[in-house]
């Protein structure tokens, strides 16, 4: 019995991790999610639908998943209608396959988007919440989902502002920083002209 306890004590002491006198933040535990979705099975009735990339959070970045949306609503030139449609997709809970792949959304439910305020550039979309107050990855999701669609502006950019018409909107680009840095939305925007 004593020999068994001595062996267990020696094994525990020799685990290779040194004890420290102060707490150490080693960051989050490694993730085992794939951030990949299984190949789709044969689609059902897809008439009137088109595929669009919606950016969700997975493994400390925002990554695209394909969603089917009404083609008519997305392909018309109305920026606001396209933005509202895409925002609804971002607010929607990931489906079972997306959850299994490790995807989630940080875009809060009930977020609203409207068109430009007086004096804003024509491409402006205003949220009913200040962009700086959104959850960490939500701006990356919004910017990268809107960019490259009728909701965005030229050069994979999006012009976004908050509810206060006296605070000028900012232009955001869907780039590597926006996709990987949680708080990029608070620093990445440039004054829109």
Automatic annotation (TrEMBL):
Coiled coil regions, renumbered to chain: 73-100
Keywords tagged on the record: Coiled coil
Protein name: Lipoprotein
Annotated organism of origin: Streptantibioticus parmotrematis
